[in-house]
Structures are given as structure tokens and as C-alpha cells.
């Protein structure tokens, strides 16, 4: 069970709220346009901007889509540069692995194992061990 109340505004929650606040500030859209697009109400939004309650994941998704982003974009921005770089490095590592698996799957004959090509393998398999 998580500690704290469900309306606790943690440091991570504050960073997410700050990113959302900055997106609105930099967007050039009016607050009313923002409310219409995101589906959030005036009271709901400002309560979160004062750190009285956290944004939930659905709120972040709606806010992100208002600005043509994904919720992951907002979370990554909230992580900060070091954490964002570490996340990007892990994603690149997985992509390299995925690319290699795709290459092997598409041309398995190029990635054979020498034991598979051994002309004596059947004879050696039948030879009893000492």
C-alpha cells in the first residue's frame, strides 16, 4: 500500500504539474481554449497548479494531446535531462537488440552455428562416451 494520501503532491507530481504549466504558457492558446481541448475545468486545473492535488494519468494524457504530445513526453520532460538521457539510452539499447533479432529472423542462414554445418555431427552424436 502506498504511503500518504491519494491527494499527496509528491516532488515528481510537482515536476509534472510544472511541465504542464510551462506547456500552456508557451503554447499561445487561451485558457478557455485549453479547458475546451483538455476537458479540465477551471477549478480542477487551478487546484493542481497550486499543488493542492496531483494530476492523474488521464489528466496528463488529455493535457499532452492538447499540445500534440503523448503523456510519455510529459513524464520524460519532468524527469529532467539526466534521467531523460538514461531513458533514451535504454530505449536505444532495446532498439539495437530488436533490430538484431529482426535481422537474424529474416536471414537465419547468415547466422548459422558451425556445429550445425559439421558433416560428422550425426556420427559424433552416435559415438558412445567413455
UniProtKB/TrEMBL annotation:
Residues 118-130 have a biased composition (Basic and acidic residues). It comes from the Bacteria. Residues 110-130 are annotated as: Disordered. This is XRE family transcriptional regulator.
